[in-house]
Amino acid sequence: MKMPNASTSVTPMTSRTGFTLLSLAAVVLVGLNLRAGITSASALFHDLQLFLGYGPLIAALLPSIPTLVFAVAGAGTAWIARRIGLAGTIMLALSVLAVGLGFRAIPTTWALLAGTVAAMCGIALCNVAMPSFIRQHFAEKTSMMTGVYTVTMSVGATAASSLSVPLALAAGSPTLGLATWGFLALAGALAFVPFLMMARADKTKAAATETTTGKGINPFALLRTGRGLVITGLFSVQSLMAYAIMSWLPSVLISRSMSPADAGVILGVLQLVSIPATMLSLWMVNKRNMLRGAIMMCSISVGLGLAGLLVLPLGLAWLCAVAMGIGFSIFPLVLLIISQSGDTAEETTAMSTLAQSVGYLVATSGPFGMGLLYAASESWTLPILLLIGVACIQLCLGIAASSYRKNAPRRSAA
């Protein structure tokens, strides 16, 4: 009988079941953080401007920071992961997120901007690293874990948008209310301590499974391929749509005489609806092989929700939120396309880096452009009409991208 080798024996903490549960908890905690730091500010933009006294340029710039930082910081994720490992990159990202969110407690405009930039740097690293983390630890359950990841993102966004105004009132200022979400990021960072301990205990395994992430692959070379162009274009337009809506929906409703607290709740409804909508979209893909149909449903729904903001009375704003929430479920579908875009985790990281770096740079024009157009026209009509046009572009790119899943690998070697 073959005796077990000491170098390959496992401890209880690294047993298959325990490690799977630990990985699942890490995915959930990261997901809860990735939109909470954004939507928690959206419902408070009006109050922050009154509290700090900044002008329309800062008001337009503030919601544009996330996508701009995602584009710049996300491009360096593969380089960082090669040096400190995938788990180390995510832990670093969550730590930076916690510090940035906490820094926003200082009641000055420069602290709000600096803290937002730092926090978004942390989210940018997670955005790029998580598809590879899921692929690495759940190779045979990529679709399911992508769903878990995106659902927890929606849960975090729902809680943040609904609770940010009450938390600000309880804390006595909007800046202190924003800073409270740093504790959630800190909890996420602590969840990755065991991964770093295991990596140090087995450096050879860590080198084989983590530090090679993205090595030898130039993400931007994928722009010379049709697949790279279409996937990057799809990620760009859905990000532009999502961040423009998340940033300005409360302000649109407030301009129509809705209270800030109620406007935050409406944004929370949108995020809440995206949870069952995400489950429905992934069910359509996994059980009915209807990726194209799911993308069409999402694109048409978000367009109808935006049109409703222009024609429906304020009392039916929740109906618009429901339609847009269904539209938001396109995000896990795009992540699924990215996660299955290569044969290895390295290729997936390269596509994720490309799509998110270029995509978020393009998406910056959404929040920033809407803010400037509103300041110039003193009306939300033109910005919303332009977003409806973006929904049409998303529909076309989504139909093109849906053909790429047919030849995508269903499983990846552990």
- CATH C-level class: Mainly Alpha
CATH architecture label name? Up-down Bundle
C-alpha geometry: globular
Q: What would the average pLDDT be, to the nearest integer?
A: 83
Helix content: over 70%
Secondary-structure element string: HHHHHHHHHHHHHHHHHHHHH
Structural class: mainly alpha
State the helix count: 21
Low-confidence residue ranges: 1-14, 204-215, 406-414
CATH topology: Growth Hormone, Chain: A
Structure description:
It is a single chain. With 414 residues, this protein is mainly α. It is built from 21 helices and no strands. The chain has helices at 16-34, 36-42, 45-52, 56-61, 65-74, 77-84, 86-103, 109-137, 142-171, 174-179, 182-190, 193-201, 203-209, 226-255, 260-286, 291-311, 317-328, 330-339, 345-363, 365-377, 381-401. The protein is globular and about 55 Å long.
Keywords:
single chain, 414 residues, mainly alpha, Growth Hormone, Chain: A, 21 helices, 0% strand, globular, disordered C terminus
Write the layout of secondary structure elements.
Elements lengths: L15 H19 L1 H7 L2 H8 L3 H6 L3 H10 L2 H8 L1 H18 L5 H29 L4 H30 L2 H6 L2 H9 L2 H9 L1 H7 L16 H30 L4 H27 L4 H21 L5 H12 L1 H10 L5 H19 L1 H13 L3 H21 L13
Helix pairs in contact: 1-8, 1-9, 1-11, 2-9, 2-14, 5-8, 5-19, 6-7, 7-8, 7-11, 8-19, 9-15, 9-18, 12-13, 14-15, 14-18, 14-19, 14-20, 14-21, 15-16, 15-17, 15-18, 16-17, 16-21, 20-21
Brief overview, please?
With 414 residues, this protein is mainly alpha-helical. Helices cover 77% and strands 0% of the residues.
